[in-house]
Design a protein that fits this description.
This is Lycopene cyclase. With 404 residues, the protein is of the alpha/beta class. The protein has 9 helices and 19 strands.
Length: 404
């Protein structure tokens, strides 16, 4: 196993998805640490291109990777009535993974403390003074890296035990229509006019790119994913019978599954090894949103290291996780009607406050007022029973790097 002084960094980041690259970017831009990012080589281990979405209010340093943004959002209730909101000063933003990778890779190359390594990380273990990572390079040669800290964003083999384990699973078409069918200024976050499954909920999702191009997705919150053919059938019905798009061409597809669970994700895998991203609990359990949380968490980790702390902060606060656990359980048991619940929130809560709530950025007072807009009795019943429900394991992790 070979190594050299060049194979020693302050930090090694495993995985080059949203979480890994975001943390590497925050550490190098502030000069907090020298960073080596280990990404898998080209081949089946590298994920396909993905779409990440988030909302933000100010121009930021990631704007060069933003494909499109929307200042008007819309939700369609199951009854066909729509809610159109302006969440100003927030805007909803789309980032394609290839654009994000290109941006961060370029910045890492310009940073004296940044390094990108294509290799397969085989083992990670604590050693005196930090951690050791044994890798295999694309040509098969072994390499040993050493660092004071390792941040591992690779998916877990299985999710930790939980009381509720759902999936947000989806398939999307990038479509081009024969005529102009979309309003590029309006994003449809949830369209509950699609047929609802027997368990869980389903909705359409439309992000217009131009008057004749859009990302159209079919999404479910349920316990198991669908087959590709089932997704295709649902998308065909949504595009033809509900949206009335007419003749269209599917230019690209994407598919993924995001864990929606109240599992307790371990934030450490060793004394000097920390987990980040979905594997570290960054995915918001009740919504599946991850990208914005990853940005906040990356900044917080960089600040903690700059100040010399030996631990890193959690990606979400306990209050937010407790509320999410209640909502997941209430959805899973059928005590609340998912389409009515989410539509009611958009109808009754100011949009900017609601989006901050979904991101975990509201105060206790704001959360109390939002809570009064929910079905109080079913939620209270769920809150009372949660402490008595055992956490159980599930073998199907489904925690890939597909993020909202």
């Amino acid at each position: 196993m070979t190594s050299s002084p060049d194979d020693t960094s302050d930090v090694v980041v495993l995985g080059g998805g949203a979480a890994g690259l975001s943390l590497a970017h925050r550490l190098t831009e502030t000069g907090t640490a020298s960073v080596t990012v280990v990404e898998p080589p080209d081949g089946p281990s590298r994920p396909a291109e993905r779409t990440w979405c988030y909302w933000d209010q100010d121009p930021g340093d990631l704007d060069d990777a933003v494909t499109k943004s929307w200042s008007v959002l819309r939700v369609h209730g199951a009854d066909g009535r729509q809610v159109t909101v302006d969440p100003a000063p927030l805007t909803y933003r789309m980032v394609r993974s290839t654009s994000f990778e290109r941006l961060v890779h370029t910045r890492l190359a310009r940073s004296p403390g940044g390094r990108l390594l294509r290799a397969t990380a085989d083992t990670v273990r604590d050693v005196p003074g930090g951690a050791e990572i044994r890798c295999t390079l694309p040509e098969g040669r072994p390499l040993t890296l050493r660092a004071r800290r390792v941040f591992d964003s690779r998916p877990l083999r299985a999710l930790p035990p939980a009381r509720t384990q759902l999936l947000q699973h989806f398939r999307g078409w990038f479509v081009r229509t024969a005529t102009e069918r979309f309003d590029p200024a309006v994003a449809d976050l949830m369209d509950f006019r699609v047929p609802q499954p027997a368990h869980g909920l389903a909705f359409g999702y439309v992000l217009p790119l131009t008057p004749d191009r859009a990302l159209v997705e079919y999404t479910e919150f349920s316990r198991t994913a669908l087959t590709t053919q089932e997704y295709e059938t649902a998308l065909g019905h949504y595009c033809t019978d509900i949206l009335g798009l007419g003749t269209l061409t599917v230019e690209r597809t994407e598919q993924g599954a995001i864990p929606m669970t109240d599992a307790r994700f371990p934030r450490r895998a060793g004394k000097a090894v920390f987990r980040i991203g979905t594997a570290g609990g960054a995915t918001r359990p009740a919504t599946g949103y991850t990208f914005a949380a990853v940005q906040r968490h990356s900044r917080a980790i960089a600040a903690a290291l700059r100040e010399g702390h030996g631990t890193v902060p959690a990606p979400h606060g306990r209050r937010a996780l407790a509320m999410d656990a209640m909502l997941l359980r209430a959805l899973d048991t059928g005590r609340i009607d998912g389409p009515d619940f989410f539509t009611g929130l958009f109808r009754g809560v100011p949009a900017e406050r609601l989006l901050r709530f979904l991101d975990g950025a509201t105060s206790l007072g704001e959360e109390w007022r939002i809570g009064l807009r929910t079905p109080v009795r079913p939620m209270l019943r769920t809150a009372v029973e949660l402490p008595f429900i055992p956490r159980r394991s599930r073998t199907d992790a489904r925690n890939g790097d597909n993020h909202r």
